[in-house]
Amino acid sequence: MTPKAHYHKLLQRQLKKVRDKNLSAEDSMEELLKLVNDSYESLDRDNQHLKIIIRESSTELLEANNKLKKAHQELADNYSKEVSLLRHLVDKSGEAVQVTSEDGVMMYINQTGAERLGQNVDELLGQYVGEVEKMFVDKRDWDEHVKDLKENGPMIIEGRHQRKDGTVFPIEANAFYSQQDDKGYVIAFIRDITERKRMMQAMEDQHQFIRQIIDTVPNLIFVKNQQGQFIMVNEAVARIFGKSVEEIELKDNSEIHPIVEENVIFNETEKKVIDSMQPVSLEEQFTISTGEVKTYFTTKVPLERADGTIDILGVSTDITAQKITENQIKKSLSEKTTLLGEIHHRVKNNLTVIFGLLEMQIIQSSDDHVVQILRESQGRIRSMSMIHEMLYKTNNLESINVSQYIEDLSRNIYKTYHRFENVQLEISTTESIQLPLNKMIPCGLLVNEILTNAYKYAFEGKTDGKICISTQLIDYNLVLKISDNGIGLDENKLLSKTQSLGMKLIQSFNKQLKSEMTMTNQNGLHYTFKIPIS
Amino acid sequence: MSNKKRVLLVEDDEIIAFLHKHFLEKCGFETIETVDNGIEAIEDVRAMLPDAVLMDIRINGEMDGIETAQKIREFSDAPIIFLTGNSDDGTLERAKLTSKSGYLIKPIRQEDLCEAIAKINANPS
Q: Distance (Å) from the C-alpha of residue B75 to the closest C-alpha of chain A?
């Protein structure tokens, strides 16, 4: 209720009281005066109260206003800071940021963009975009670009920007079209890709260099996938197929090589490489495009790619010429081996003839001493003849199996002196000992002399006995032992024995063999020879 | 006609053939022919019916002495003495498969030859 209404109501109530009680004018005035006084007092109280309220409200309002001002200031400060920060970020961003109006006028460019162009921001603003972007020198190209962006959305394009000094550098722009307040803009984030281009060029140069190397080498170099398709070949491969590199790539053998038998071998080898994951090397026959059959030495290795797939890397070397030479050498060697064998056969036959001629003389001779001398000569010839025979019959033209030879020789000598049927021949030999021809001849003659002497002299006056022969391999030495349990030599005979032809021959052979000889004369004669093998 | 045993000599080395012929004569045998290859040996055995054949194993032609002997054995029982070397066990084993045969290891002595022929004639197997 307003104060006016309040006091109006009080007066209405006082007037009603005067009428109802028929008060006199004096009483009425007093009542009215009283009422007025009361009202004044009430007004005064209200006034005081109102003043307090107003004062209090004003204080609150002032405080609120101050807070509001402060908040507003903080907000303004923060906004300014954020804008400043954003501007700083955009300006100093690694990428150029450029806003261009739909008709190609540069509306905004950040500091980075301007610096890259060698200009101030202010110089650039308002310029036609084609002044810096070579792609849009012609306005129609810009219009086409804007249309493209409108229809197809954001895109990444590569171009070339021109600096103020006229130099040009490659860029990549991530551009999109945006509309604000009925106006269209092209916003682009532009990256200087000079370094990327340089690296790509370096990689391309490196690739070309490697390509040049693999195309220059005469070896065949190729990579096949597991489907058997060539995924990389060098020029050498292309040449033998009579095709270009491009014609071979992504083709398998059957599509470019008509020789099925050769393809089967290639495929089997490659399967082996994949199955085993191990390199495989082999000699391969390959009929090249001219029809000539070549021989290649090929190594195929599993090649694990970065994505985990396994391919096959192959390197082949043309060894056709080497194979021809190798075959010629083999043939020549075979011929010479055959010839050498024939020579040994001829020598053996010649010795057989000499043996036979001596035999004829033995038949015609009536002198026992002469016969004995001729028989001894026959024995020496036979021991040599056997060596030549063994050389050509065992296909080993270089060395002789000592065990086999000594067994054969000993039994032959035993047979020659078969009148000593009760003399046992005991042979103990090591199978693996081989002696070259130049050592086997004196060794054989040595054994012949000692055995012949043993049969001739060791068992005079005895009805039985034993001859032992053994061979051992000890520290690269052939240790040959020949002993008998015969009568041995008495002191008188020992001196003359050492001067006999047989003993001189034994010492000569021993010297030729560079061996160490020991002879003991106790319960028969015992010879030991330590013959170096090498 | 002589009572001497008639021997066909198969040997490709002329001097050795000469020596063996001499030894055979000393043993009381007659060398009726000397040939150096298997084909002629087979023909001569068929035509001349020798009492024995002295057969070197290594002879001229495609057939060796053992193969020749096997062909001869298809139509003749004439004793065959093979001449072989020492280091030839495999060859000796093949030779031993031929019936009514013996062998001598070269170089041979006359008395060994006489013994061998006499033995094989006395004990045909």
A: 31
